[in-house]
Amino acid sequence: MKRLKHLSIKRKMTAVIMLTSSAALLLACAAFVAYDLLAFRRVMTQELQVLAQVVGNRSTASLAFDDPGSAGEALAALAARRSILMACIYDKAGRPFACYTRPDARGLEVPPAPVGEGPRIEGGRLHVAQRILLDGTEIGTLRIESDLSDLRARAVRYAGIVGLVLLISSLTAFLVSERLQRPVSGPILALAETASRVSAGRDYALRAEKQGEDEVGLLIDAFNEMLGQVQLRDEALLRAKEGAEAAAVEARRLAEATSVANLQLAREVAERRRAEEALRESEQRFRQLAENIDAVFWMLEADSGSLIYVSPAYERVWGRSLRSLHEQPMRFFETLHREDQGRVTEAAERLAEGVFDEEYRILRPDGSQRWVRTRAFPVRRIDGSVYRIAGITQDVTDRKKAEETIRHRAYHDELTGLPNRLLFAERFAQIVEHLRRSDETIALLFLDLDRFKTINDTLGHALGDRLLKAVAERLRLSLRGGDTVARFGGDEFIVLATGIEGGHDAAHLSEKILQLMRPPYRLGVHELRITTSVGIAVYPDDGTEIETLIKNADTALYRAKERGRNCFQLYSPAMNARALEQLALENDLRRALEQMEFTLHYQPEVDLRSGRIVGAEALVRWQRPGREPLLPQQFIPLAEDVGLIGALGEWVLRTACDQSRQWNAAGLPLRVAVNLSPREFEHKDVTRGIARALAQAGLDPAGLELELTESTVMRDAESAVRTLRDLKAMGVQIAIDDFGTGHSSLSYLKRFPVDALKIDQAFVRDLATDPEDAAIVKAVISLAHSLEIQVIAEGVETEQQLEFLRAAGCDVVQGFLLGPPAPPEAIADLVRNRTN
Amino acid sequence: VAESNLAAEHAAALPEYRLKAAFLCQFFHFVRWPETSPQQHLATSRIGILGEDPFDEVFKPVEGTLIEGRPLEVRRFHNLKGMEPCHILFISASEDAHLAEVLTALRGSSTLTVSEAAQFTRIGGIVRFYPKGDRIGLEINAGAAERAGLKLSAKLLDLAKVVADEERKAAPRR
Fold it and tell me: Which residues of A touch B127 (CB under 8 A)?
């Protein structure tokens, strides 16, 4: 305080203003920070309580069936929350049942079971307890302890922010007070200065300038009054002395003044003319600029807000006349888009300071709307005060539209206009955030069109795309308010349904969607029917993360497809077990080839006329370590799926060719038959691969018969004809397998260079009992013979069947009656025995 | 209340069958029977015991207490002939010789079958108790439960060993 006394008035006032404002600010900051930290602590506690409820609920079965292991797994999931130090489940008697402690918090003692229910903070930690109920009875308790490091970090951050705010505001207060105290201290300082000038110059004609009617003003009046009194007396003294000198001086001064004034006048006239010229030129430049740019240039009076100038571009942008604007300037606000009016009016209040930069929509008289951007800047006098506002308004409609398009594209599927994965994930996050505190569930429906690929392949992509659009439209119509449908890619769609009460509800919705999708789609001349399969996962039972839900819904979808398509399937955890089994099979299959787990067995083919074994069909077996051997139909489709069929087929072909050559060398002229899968047959290098295998084994091509199923060659009959001709040209024998099960066209059969038909065992099995099958077999044999094609009957098991086939003129037979598939040595023995 | 009375003592201190009895009662909370099943029309939560009863008097103090809103009832059957619908049927070791016959008779009856026999879940039984260290483990054939129309809680499946039928083979994909 003592030091304050020696400061000038100006400094004193600055100090007072700064101290007051800093104190008020500090108090406000402290109150806000305290309130926020308390609220944050409440949220932390609530979150922990919800977590405890979820974990408690998950652990009911573990407690009921006395399985601490699974309870431990439920607790271990808490590791995702870094702040959780310890979580422990206690049984009804209060003994620890399962515990989790944060890895770095080892050595933490397991505290006794909690007594009270409420959360509390103790020893810098947050404790939450949750009773675990089953059928209304308490079967245990859960206790979770969390550290408060988040809270502390927040407090430290706030301290920093408050310090910074104080610093900045003190600086501002200092600068403001410098200016604000001027009206108070200014007159006092002026008075002091006048007083010192009077005493220094003895000039009693000086007066202090009065700047206000406040107390300082009164003081100045009194001071001036006093000076007046002194001056009156002083003047009386001087008047006598000056009287004589005055007349002479006056005459001289008048003469001087007249000549100076004449000179001055001439100079001023010239200067003024130059200034007017410059002004006119500048005005013209400005007009040319303002009237030829696209943007609207305008200028306002800062105080009254009245329009001074608006460039003609206004008429083009607004579609209204300049005159109407000048006549009724306030109606300008009526041209604003209703939603933007509030914002623009609010921003316009600061226009007088020259601060304005807004983008908003305007309505034109023809009803169209355009986006404009208006920026304003102040025009200042030399002393810095604002007296005019100038501004530029540009039409930015095109840019806005482009931005809108870009935003829409980023979040939507281009073809169907549905939300894409990105937007879907955002919606999901929003909904889950919204649901966090309620126990409502949501369902994720994964939809896949059945056999869409066929439509794409046969009718073309353009039609496929139109179908997808139509499907998307139906899906969109089938949804209720809060639901979202997105295209997930290809022919997959995904629906997020809210307000679902468990799987039953989700199933009901799926049935509704399936029904809606069933009616045929009319696309131009085409009428397409396509069914849909749906897999359902329910949040939070089947997962809380979007990835998990999608994965599980996909698993369920897969199951629905297996069940015959056109249906829906709810996810169940057991499906994962099945999926794992499938995965294990896949993994084993990948290894199987390296580990040489495949073997070839051969089934003899017997010529009916001579009774001799003329060939053997190679059949691959997979001996999975520690399991039953698997038949081709159990793993070949899988091998095709995982892309192993190429390598496996090559191995079979090589091994079979090698075997045939070995038999030949041993004096057993056996032709070996190898099955070609569709994937292998359609491979572009199929001919070259077979030629190589034959060359490597040193086998005459006539010693190899390739078996292709009817459906394989009919998939693309035209290109099949070409491939078969190439193979035939090499000298390889060709047989059509499983004949009668597919849909061969006779016209193609004539064009295929085929050596043999193999009648499917389904027809052979019931030969004796089913007259229809018998008739078919007879017809096939006579048809084949008329085309000079051999007939091989598969699956011959009884003498009756053999007799029938012999009577019908069948050429070759194969089946258990003549010999089951067997290792190559056994076949060699069989041939020798028959010959003997 | 019933199960908590039974499980009042710590697991290790209980004779094996007191704990198994408690487990049987617990199943009511984690299994849902189909709406149309005869079990849903029962006025009681009914546990059946087929064959020789190894539980002795264990159920005595809790019979009549409410489980899932219905009083607990325990019925004992000497053979298949006198069987009545039960929610849960415990098949005693005395019946191990003709388990297949019992399971065939129960097919389509939406009964949660429980046994201690080694192959029980492999031949179509739903739940098997098996020794797991010094505790009792659960083995569940989820496929069998599904066929019986029973909905098992995921929580139950989480802690059980889930197995498949023996005759199931790896089916080709697609």
Answer: none
- Closest approach of chain A CAs to the CA of B30, in angstroms? 8
Instruction: Give the residue carrying structure tokens 């307890």.
Output: A129
Q: State the nearest Cα–Cα gap between A62 and chain B, in angstroms.
A: 7
Beta-carbon separation of A641 and B26 below 8 A: no
What's the token pair of residue A534?
Answer: 């749906």
A493-514 pLDDT, tens digit per residue, is: 999 988 887 778 888 888 888 8
Contact call for B170 and A65, based on CB within 8 A: no
Instruction: Give phi and psi for B55, each to the nearest 5.
Output: -90, -15
Tell me, what's the pLDDT at A815?
A: 92
Query: In this structure, what token pair is assigned to residue B104?
Result: 């065939």
Candidates B113, B24, B87, B82; CA nearest to A65 is B24
Query: So what's the pLDDT on residue A107?
Result: 61
Chain B: residues touching A (Cβ < 8 Å): 1, 3-4, 7-8, 10-11, 19, 23, 26, 28-30, 67-68, 135-138, 142-143, 146, 153-159, 162, 164, 169-174
Q: Are A211 and A183 in contact (CB under 8 A)?
A: yes
pLDDT at position B3 is: 45
> Are B29 and A135 in contact (CB < 8 Å)?
yes
Q: Distance between CA atoms of A11 and A189, rounded to whole angstroms?
A: 13
Question: Residue A652: which region, alpha, beta or left (left: phi > 0; alpha: psi -120 to 50)?
Answer: alpha
Q: Which chain B residue shows the shortest CA-CA distance from A97?
A: B10
Contact B142/B124 with Cβ under 8 angstroms?
A: no
Q: Do A64 and B135 touch (CB under 8 A)?
A: no
Q: In a 3-state reduction of DSSP, which class is residue B37?
A: coil
Asked if the Cβ–Cβ distance from A65 to B158 is below 8 Å, we say no
Cβ within 8 Å, pair A65-B164: no
Token duo for residue A504:
């039953």
Q: Which residue has the higher pLDDT, B15 or A466?
A: A466
**Is B11 a residue whose pLDDT tops 60?**
no
Percent helix, percent strand, percent coil in chain B, to nearest 5:
35, 25, 40
Q: How confident is the model at residue A54 (pLDDT cuts 50, 70, 90)?
A: confident
Separation CA B174–CA A76 (nearest Å) = 37
Chain A: residues touching B (Cβ < 8 Å): 58, 60-62, 64-67, 69-70, 73, 91-93, 95, 134-135, 137-139, 541, 561, 572-574, 577, 581-582, 585, 630, 633-638, 641
Collapsed DSSP state (helix, strand, coil) of residue A81:
coil
Distance between the two ends of chain B, CA-based, in angstroms?
A: 50
- Please state, in angstroms and rounded to a whole number, the distance separating the CA atoms of residues A204 and A227: 6
Q: Nearest-CA neighbor of B162 among A563, A560, A573, A552?
A: A573
Verify whether the Cβ–Cβ distance A70 to B158 is below 8 Å: yes
* Strand residues in A450-551 grouped as ranges (E): 484-489, 492-500, 521-523, 526-528, 532-539
> Pick from B67, B138, B157: which is nearest to A135 by CB?
B67
pTM tops 0.90, yes or no: no
- The 3 state secondary structure assigned to A626-682 is CCCEECHHHHHHHHHHCCCHHHHHHHHHHHHHHHHHHHHHCCCCCEEEEECCHHHHC
Work out the pLDDT band at B12, boundaries 50, 70, 90. Answer: very low
DSSP state of B38: G
DSSP alpha helices (H): ranges in A667-810? 678-681, 686-697, 710-715, 717-730, 746-751, 761-765, 771-786, 799-808
Among B23, B153, B170, select the one facing A585 at the smallest CB separation. B170
Q: How many residues does chain B have?
A: 174
Radius of gyration of chain B (CA): 16
Structure tokens at B173: 């994909």
Rounded to the nearest angstrom, the minimum Cα separation between B155 and chain A is 6
